[in-house]
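Following up on my earlier thread - several people asked me to post the actual chain instead of describing it. Fair enough. Here it is, all 971 residues.
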Amino acid sequence: MIGESLIKSKIWIPPVAVFFLGIVSVNAQEAKPKKDTIREKEIDEVVVVAYGKAKRNSYTGSVATISSDKINNRPVNNITKALEGQVPGIQAASASGQPGSTASIRIRGIGSVSASSDPLFVVDGIPFDGNINSISPNDIESISVLKDATASALYGSRGANGIIIITTKSGKKGEAKINFNISQGFSGRAVKDYEQVSTDQYFQLHWEALRNGYKSDKISSQQAAQMASDNLVSSLGINPYGPGYPNPVGTDGKLLPGAKALWNDDWRDVLQRMASRNQVDFDVSGGSDKSNYFFSLGYLDDKGIAIQSGFKKYSTRLKLNSEVKKWLNVGVNLSYTNSIQQAPTSSDSKSGNVIQAARTIPSFYPYYERNPDGSYRLNADGERVFDFGKYRPSNALQNQNLAATLPLDKNENREDNFSGKGFLDFTFLPELKFKSSFSVDLVNYNGHYYTNPILGLGKETGGSVSRSNSRTLSYTTSNILTYDKKFGQHHFNILAGQEFYKYDYQTISGSRSQFSLPYYYEPSAAALLGSFTGKSDKLTLLSFLGKAEYDFKNTYFLSASARTDASSRFYGDNRWGKFWSVGASWKASNEDFIKDLNFFNQLTLRASYGGQGNDKLGTLYAYQELYKFYNNLGEPGTVLTKTATNDVKWETNLNFNAGLEFTILNNRVKGNVEYFQRKSQDLLFNMPTAPSLGISDFPANIGTIQNTGFEFSLFTTPIKNDDFEWNIDVNLSTLKNKILKLPKGTVISGTKRMQEGGSIYDFFIQEWKGVDPSTGKPLWRYIYQDENGNTIDGTTSEYGKATKTPQGSALPKLTGGVTTSIAYKNFDFSALLSFSLGGKILDTDYTSLMYNGSSGGRAWSTEMLNRWTPENPYTDVPSLSTTTNNWNSSSSRFLYSGSYARLKNVNLGYTLPSDYFEKLGLKKFRIYIQAENLLTFYKHKGLDPEQSLDGTTYFRYPAMRTVTFGLQATL
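Reply from S.P.:
Thanks for posting it. Predicted structure:
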């Protein structure tokens, strides 16, 4: 494993400064001049935007793009995990390292409290409802991220949280091209787990906890010490030192001379592994003057680092485009993916969580049964016997051994994703076109979870099985008419269209238990019916849209768009939402006074403003009464849970954007600076009602949140000549989230408090005040009033009395990434460093290793070695005792800085000279090695800093470091 290094936030300024200084210095070099000195094609690049394309330097909206070369070569299963650090304004949090999982994406902050804040994915011009996992990164040509109202308002309610447009590859005119990519990788933890005390240290610490727990007015320290020595082994249920040391720790708290642990079974070694990753991608493409085609096949087998976890995927895509008549183009895009995810519990506090179990059980509890002398106990066949720890305390997962049971269990998710798109593109006049499109997405999911009746907890219940199946069918039809015409120095582009969307979701699930025979996994083999349930959801959306763009002399640009959506989630007049945008840009570099400066190769200023809606509400169809149904002794019962609320309406997003884009130094440096303000109003909250009504609450549009920030991106080419090219890209974004309006001004939920003036993820927990050096007791802040009514700001050792106070936000203040790429002759190298500064993380995983001694049998962090003792009074760890003191409960003691940096990707390749492979009929042959999550720079060791967006850990599957070897061939 590659070690992690400690980096403080302040060191991030020098590297960026170095890049700028490097850019200035290399400009003095005598590189061979070329017209295309730096990515000049990107200066006037055509980018994919809503319902069409636009030139980047004249577009009035905010759009960022990622090219295929930054995606195809990444060993990621899901493209959401390839976005972090590459686009300013995007926050991508991988809440789980489980293969096949997705990252949570937020564009320019959090836009809602009760409704979804997820962006809309658009694939080849049509909104996509399938699993984003089904899109192979190898099939992607480019990704456009639309961030402001001008860019996304045409998608109306579906684009309120930003748009991610994915364009898949198409064939190109010319001879057929065959691409083949094969890779083999190996994965481990990206961050080493928390350090734990050794067996010797553990026994001495637990002895101390027992002694302190025994001491009282009636029991002296000497008597307590003897009791601790006598009861130590029985308290933990095991003696790893053998029968020669029945009391391995003496009354002085030290291990007896000669005592040595007979085994050291680290459960992380048996429940986690070095995993493998195999991927094969194949595609063939080509075309003529009138048609083109693209066909691909993909295979992926990604084993997880936790045993019995992994993700396997088979994918295929067929894309055809043809000009069947001079006035008619037709196209079809079909894709199908079958995936199988092995996903044992790995993201909550359940005892069956394989990640948490590996961390919880100390190494003196063996995973194979041991004889008193330390040798393995064998069965009649001479095989080792798994140790289920009936003797272990409950804190050490008594009667469990996931190394034995997981191979016999099932934790399987199967999914079929089909996506079909087709279009007819009519050209009535050179300037007048009509496009009719149809898209369907079908996702069929099947979950199969089985607990075996042979070993483990399932043995007592006869085993259990649950099955669930869901089917999601959605389709979108759109009809778009465009008019594009130039009149001298005037240019008009007008778009009008209609769109219809239908969504249909159905799910059913059930469980049974008590199997009469082992190795039968289906519900029909179990005797006792446990539960059976199902539900469905349907949504329709009818939309009309229009856009007008005008430019004069290719210098002054104006745009306006409008869309109206009718959603079945709302009632009556509230059903129709009206969304709009206006934008303008000025290509100042076309002005004579800018040209006379002889400094800017390109200079554009832009601004936009608009409003969008959000109907992805947590409470569905609020205008209808909602009920719960009960079984009342065999008779059906119905209870009203929500009354009809007809006035619930769309949440609304108002977005302002202003930006400056420039290119200087003979196109060597290209930059973009933007300011945004995103206000989300009419937010949906559940308002409480009087208990006498029998209904707890009702939904209402009350609340406003604002996100503001700056985005900065810089693309540079310090050196470029015939043999060598070096590019450096930097992007930064700031974010300030502020709640402007809330019902009753404050909402408290768990460890968070939302209040007017604060942010959506503000921590509101007890404040840690250290350890009392005279007693060793924990201290928290305690604000109270004395008998005279004076407010006293003091401390308390009772957690229940501690006062909750604001403790900062989970949201980072600055995020970004630095990308560098070097090409020297046939060698190529690239690296991506992503970082996040500010924000806080509440590490509730770590607290399980930081108990004071009351949870005997559970593993301990090495930090407990610094606990309070009379000889060590000044410390941040309280004294040990078997009497709980709640010191590891949620407080600012376990709130850590969220600042980190991660070397997300490093790629080194070599393309063989053409002389070597032309004789074999190859056009290109490249070998490469790459690494994902290679290094993580973070202060709090053991914690993976890429946590959920709300900044709270939840015993999750850690991120994986993957090193991959591969080859790419083109025929």
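The longest helix spans residues 199-214. That should answer part of your original question.
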